[in-house]
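Researcher: Quick sanity check before group meeting.
Model: Go ahead. Protein one:
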Amino acid sequence: MKPLQRRPLYLAIRAVTVAGGMTLAATPALAGFSEVTTNNPFAAITSGTTGVSLTLTDLDSDGDLDALVWHRAHDDVFPFYSSDISLYENTGTRTEAVFTQVQDFSGYGYGGDNFDANPFTYDWGGSSYGHPVSAGDLNQDGLDDFVGGNANVDSLGFLHGISVNDGYGQATDLDNRYDESSGNSMFYGTNIMPYGDAYGYGSPLLLDLDNDTDTDIITSSNGFLFAFQNNGVDMSNVLQLAQLQGPAHPFVGGATLALGNAYLGAPMAAGDLDNDGDLDILLGVAYGPENLRYFINTGSTSTAQFEEKTFADLDVSTTIAAAPATGDIDGDGDDDVVVVEQQASGPATFRLFLNDGAVTRTVPISSSSSGGGIGGALLGVFAGAAMLRRRKLKKS
């Protein structure tokens, strides 16, 4: 197994080719989404029956998106059945994904291209917290962190499963699930779930709200939305979070915006849904039947202002529960959407909606911006990465 350095693709990078000091980059254009009904690469994913969420990230630094499936229960069989986190390596390419499940134990011939075994086996440790999960780099060490919420009616508190990839294919500290009252938590004393301890409905979303290159946090606590600006960590590795309140609250309606019972603890995802260069938010469903909801950023990359809108091509209704994820699945430089729908029985359904809205134009790009965090792995085609933040689908 080769050493792993995190070079995620969950921010869809707009640059598509480099020629001297000029780059072809996608011009913001109204997105149109088309569901893939044949040759959907996510149809190969069979893990997860209840409490399913999805994170897309480049775990093996090969330039394409791999899939982590988080679940409370699944129908997998040996050698894939021992983990609450299923890993599907993308053994295809950046433009044509092929997802291959990686075995939980090595030695059985079911590994991917760059994994002999699932490095997340046994790490989550509590299957009741498989849903929802969001991912991002909270402490700016260049490695993946995962934060899990709680959509269980009978479980209290908002528990955190923090993982840092150690650079050699091993996930560490995922079983350290602490709430903000624990001195061992990165969230100690931050109160990022104001209603979580009392009601037990929690959902996190990790994203860059203000385009300052660090990972901020939105939480849904008992159906209300809260936003926190990340100001780094202190000497004890505790996040210094500033709650955005009043006029600074990024959602129209602010802290009084009540989501409703169907969305208590529902997973969230961030992506550029309208191709205007800033992050929008998708809200999944925890207790259906109900529709996915979309909050479009009508502000800017540095000052987000989210207003609820509808998308005719992305009008997804689900009967039980659904978790959204975003990422550039077809390598065309815009954010596509995956919706994981829980079924009455059997594995969840992974629906893929491709973003058809981006177009290209020629713009000058400084040569110092070429490559960004992807570097030589993509032969320099992602110029402009310094201009556009990486997106987690997380980022869950």
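Researcher: Fine. The other one?
Model: Protein two, sequence then structure:
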Amino acid sequence: MSSKKDKKANNTISSGEIAKNKKALFNYELVEKFEAGIVLLGTEVKSLRERSVNMSDSYASFKKGELFIVNMHISPYHFGNRNNHEPLRERKLLMKKRELKRLYGKIKEQGLTLIPIKLYFTRGKVKVELALAKGKKLHDKRETLKRKTLDREMERYIKR
């Protein structure tokens, strides 16, 4: 009976959000979202459990028909030894071949970029939420800032 409780407790620890790319929502207009697995080393997973990751400047790109995530910084594991991982190495993303072909076509034709939005654990596996995104212009960014400040002021006014 105690083993079932241990498994449930372990599941709640391993499932959940690791990190979000907050800059992505500000700099890009999101068109479509996808989920992908990611190939990681053991020390990278341990480092992710400590939530030591920075994905603000990261993006996904195709190389020889495979999808890789570039510029995602996963800090070296604190208790790692000389076999610790490289923080900025390119990591392979796992998706079905049909999805990869469709994404490749959209990126090449429409000039969209593929950016990671969120990292999270699902049943002990690390998943990445990717989004096809279109870059915002400066005036669009200003408009979103104005909208956010107006929304905050309205909420403050309603609370009073």
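Researcher: One line on it for the slide.
Model: The beta strands are 16-20, 28-38, 53-54, 59-63, 66-70, 73-74, 91-94, 113-122, 125-135.
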